Amino acid sequence: MGKEKRGKCNQNKRTEAESLWKRAEGIFQLKSYVTERQGEREDMQDSHTILNDITEECQPLPATVTRLSYFAVFDGHGGCRASRFAAQNLHQNIIKKLPKGEVSNIEKLVKRCLVDAFKQTDEVFLKHASSQKPAWKDGSTATCVLVVDNTLYIANLGDSRAVLCRYNEESQKPTALMLSREHNPTQYEERMRIQKAGGNVRDGRVLGVLEVSRSFGDGQYKRCGVICTPDIKRCQLTHNDRFILLACDGLFKAFTPEEAVTFIVSCVEDEKVQTGEVKLSTDARYEAACNRLANEAVRRGSADNITVLVVHIEH
Fold this sequence. Notes:
Layout: H1 2-25, E1 29-37, E2 46-51, E3 68-77, H2 81-97, H3 106-130, E4 139-140, E5 142-148, E6 151-157, E7 161-167, E8 174-178, H4 188-196, E9 201-202, E10 205-206, E11 216-217, E12 231-236, E13 241-247, H5 249-252, H6 257-269, H7 282-299, E14 306-314
Antiparallel strand pairs: 1-14, 2-3, 3-4, 3-5, 4-11, 5-6, 6-12, 7-8, 7-13, 9-10, 13-14
């Protein structure tokens, strides 16, 4: 009887391992590249976080999940403290709140986890900022991508952006798929919320000063309707997807999302980059693409801090 039970137990473990292996076999591998430029600003207020694999930190995983990754960019204003705090703490709060073990409706739970993690990160920063003498007035945008197997969950505040390069099956040309929505005080819903809270929008800014209507920090504007509730989108990766671009608005002052995607593709496929007899590795080509894109944004006149983070989707 004991042997029979052990046999069944071992068989169950083998079946479970085989199931995990088959799931992992179909999961796209991700490789990330980043470059930064301070531009003409006095200091660098952008921050970013790259975690190619946070699977171990999120145990026990739900039965349907094999791999987790996280990528984010933060564009600070009024200082670099809010962006650095978010870069160091947002993912830790997400990891703590991610669904563990046996769960149902994982999509709903992941979205709730992201909203709660943004709220907690903001509350802790604001508490710390208000206790300083004088109080910190830093704020920051946030655009993060949590990858659950082959599903992207994109959460954002403010005007940093996430864009997916997806090839059109018929034309085989790259297209730019927007994964995030900007939060600008001139947008109707955003303006209505700000006015309802007793604030106003002048010259396209909250109280004539703040350019975004959602952010981390910015304690002095929270009573005016500036919130830290992210927009969340879900996107399923396909075999037609090549890379995800995360960037702060310093890049998009010089490039449209479509232009940025086309520029990266042309860099990666550019034969001139293949110097010598040996072709450059994929790593080297994507690194070069990030650098060339940031340099071109500066050349085109973007004086802002620039952060370009590209996540290559390997098939």
